[in-house]
Amino acid sequence: MAATSSPRPRAARMTGRERREQLVQIGRSVFAQKGFDATSVEEIAARAKVSKPIVYEHFGGKEGLYAVIVDRETSALLGALETALDEGRSHPRVLMERAALAFLTYIDESEDGFRILVRDSPVAQSGGTFSSLLGDVAAKVESILAAQLRLRKYSPRDAELYAQMLVGMVAYTGQWWLETRKPSKEEVAARMVNLSWFGLGALEKDPGIRGV
After folding, report:
1. Which of 49, 128, 132, 180 has the greatest number of CB atoms lying within 10 Å of its CB?
2. CA-to-CA distance for 1 and 78, rounded, in angstroms?
3. Percent of the chain, pLDDT > 90?
4. Is 153 left (phi over 0), alpha (psi -120 to 50) or beta?
5. Gyration radius from the chain CA atoms
6. What is the pLDDT of residue 47?
7. Other CB atoms closer than 10 Å to residue 2's CB: what's the count?
8. What is the rounded distance in angstroms from the CA atom of residue 90 to the CA atom of residue 138?
9. Furthest C-alpha separation in the chain
10. Of residues 108, 96, 87, 79, the one with CA closest to residue 169
11. By the 8 A CB rule, do 196 and 97 touch?
């Protein structure tokens, strides 16, 4: 008599929290690859090997899933930048270096998340877009610059403008570096700060356009 094979053990069912996290990770990958418009609930459900109603049960649709992912990535990036800028006793150049490196490290370690953030968000959120996140960072940088401008007897009212310029440079350079990954993030951070710091060190008090 042939030996009776033992039944294959069933895979343990995921808890609600585990299923939600699985859908977030799958959605993050698909949104990064295809963007919001080209992503469907059907594809997310198929990759998770669940039915569409499961996705709707957890998030109410792809808009809800997308909003959760954007909020998580925004918090991660802003948290890293705030930590880098939080040591007020450090020299301003050191703070700028730490912030630039924190930004590039986030891109390096969370490529999918950054690709989602830099796209225009179709989901109405408070403080959940990339531009609003950069605005929060610029406000932090502004307070640091204002103190340095006062020390050098420049008008602190220019701090807001210079903060927007510096943060814009870091953000745009980060998007470029995402695709090239050369040179190293440490070298990119050092060169960005080199340009911005020595530019600040030689600021004219009343700049104008020459030759006009």
Report:
1. 128
2. 67
3. 51
4. left
5. 23
6. 96
7. 4
8. 18
9. 100
10. 96
11. no
Tell me the whole-structure pTM to 2 decimals.
Answer: 0.81
DSSP 68-120: HHHHHHHHHHHHHHHHHH--TTS-HHHHHHHHHHHHHHHHHH-HHHHHHHHSP
The C-alpha atoms of residue 85 and residue 55 are separated, in whole angstroms, by 38
CA distances from 60 to 53, 67, 69, 124 (A): 9, 11, 14, 15
Tokens of 125: 């959120």
Structure tokens belonging to residue 85: 């800028």
Residues 153-190: tens digit of each pLDDT: 888 888 999 899 989 999 999 999 999 999 999 999 99
What DSSP assignment string belongs to 138-166? HHHHHHHHHHHHHHTT--GGGHHHHHHHH
The residue count of the chain comes to 212
Helical axes 62-85 vs 41-48, angle rounded to 10°: 80
Query: Is 51 strand, coil or helix?
Result: coil
> Tokens in use for 91?
């020299």
Alpha-carbon gap, residue 172 to 34, rounded angstroms: 21
The amino acid at residue 78 is L
